[in-house]
Write a structure and sequence with these properties.
Layout: E1 2-9, H1 17-28, E2 37-42, H2 49-56, E3 64-69, E4 72-76, H3 79-85, H4 88-93, H5 114-123, H6 129-140, E5 144-147, H7 151-163, E6 168-172, H8 179-192, E7 196-199, H9 203-213, H10 218-221, H11 224-239, E8 244-246, E9 263-266, E10 276-279, H12 287-296
Parallel strand pairs: 1-2, 5-6, 5-8, 6-7, 8-10
Antiparallel strand pairs: 1-3, 3-4, 9-10
Helix pairs in contact: 6-7, 7-12
The structure holds iron/sulfur cluster.
Length: about 350
């Protein structure tokens, strides 16, 4: 097998950031040695070998990889997919490793205890968010799921991808999202080369509600009933297949999130073997921190942010933020601030 990495050199001669990130992932996972050849695609020179290969394989993304085995040649535009399908063995057998000096206790079995969680919070008290993500994935791998919906969750996915470890991602398709959000979900999928499991609400329950109360009952009697069907129940179902999950919650996001811990024991949902370990790696960060991170990493974002939206949920229940307004004020704005939660994170 011969593996070639095609890296991009930008028109001004600088390296492409995503190519550097991909190389960093491979090096951190000890897989760099398995890349046999690196070829440059120079943006300013269409005749450069890499540009010719990109044209020949009709690839527009950088970096990409060519894996040749005999006559068979496979193109990968995602380093994660490459590792999974071609370099999977070293990844899957890699033992959990200390994260930036934060060697953490291993929960004794699949049921983390309150004591395990307290110890984790202590050990990671000063750790960077990526160290928290790395530890969770080193312990749980694909049994840990990232619940994806907004900008914060992309930061968590980006951190997870940067570790080179295996992980799962799901999102709740309530059926009431903005078209921009659907495009955003798909951009995240292609950008990171990850599978995103879409969880849909129970059709019978939603049909019954709409038949009885119409499509906008939440404006009259609150959002709990609709959110319960379109978000809470599908989340419960999704988490049934995992042992741990990661959320993008921040403490400063709303009055209901001020006590969010880095690690929590989630007894409100039942995972494969019981209560789940829930990690909130961004708990101590601010909205500004998250956006600085996303810009720095050139991560995909929802185009609605460019039109003044900060916190984005379903279309009928989200409006653009007004100047000086708290970010959550634009969600369920007709209800009291302390009730502006969809129920996904309310029960610890
Ligand atoms: S945010 Fe609005 S539309 Fe979406 S599930 Fe909740 S109440 Fe229903």
């Amino acid at each position: 097998m011969h593996v070639t990495m095609i890296k991009k050199e930008l028109a001004d001669g600088s390296p492409c950031k995503k190519c550097l990130q991909a190389e960093e992932i491979l090096r951190r996972r000890g897989l760099w040695e398995q890349i046999d050849e690196v070829i440059f695609a120079k943006e300013a020179d269409p005749a450069s070998p890499g540009m010719k290969l990109a044209a020949a394989h009709r690839v527009e993304l950088a970096p990409f990889f060519l894996v040749k085995e005999g006559e068979r040649e496979v193109v990968y535009t995602s380093v994660i997919e490459l590792m999974r399908e071609q370099l999977a063995s070293p990844m899957s057998v890699a033992p959990p490793r200390p994260t930036n000096g934060h060697a953490a206790p291993q929960p004794s079995d699949d049921h983390p205890s309150e004591q395990d969680v307290a110890e984790l919070n202590q050990r990671f008290a000063t750790a960077e968010p990526v160290a928290v993500v790395d530890w969770v994935l080193s312990r749980y791998g694909e049994s840990a799921a990232i619940a994806f919906s907004g900008a914060e969750d992309v930061a968590v996915i980006d951190m997870a991808a940067s570790t080179g470890r295996r992980f799962s991602v799901f999102t709740l398709d309530t059926g009431r999202l903005h078209p921009e959000t659907y495009r955003f979900i798909d951009r995240v999928r292609t950008h990171y080369g990850v599978k995103i499991e879409l969880m849909f609400p129970d059709r019978v329950a939603v049909e019954e509600l709409v038949r009885k109360k119409g499509l906008f009952s939440f404006y009259d009697d609150g959002h709990n009933e609709c959110c319960g069907m379109r978000k809470v129940e599908p989340l419960h179902r999704a988490l049934g297949g995992f042992r741990a999950w990661l959320s993008g919650q921040r403490r400063d996001q709303s009055p209901t999130r001020t006590n969010v811990e880095l690690f929590e024991l989630d007894r409100a949902h039942r995972g494969v073997t019981g209560p789940l370990l829930k990690a909130n790696p961004l708990a101590r960060t601010t909205l500004g921190d998250v956006w600085n991170y996303l810009r720095d990493r050139q991560a995909p974002t929802n185009e609605l942010h460019d039109r003044g939206y900060v916190s984005i949920g379903c279309e009928p229940c989200t409006r653009a933020s007004r100047p000086g307004e708290h970010e959550r004020a634009s969600r369920w704005w007709w209800e009291e601030a302390t009730k502006r939660e969809c129920g996904l994170h309310t029960a610890k």
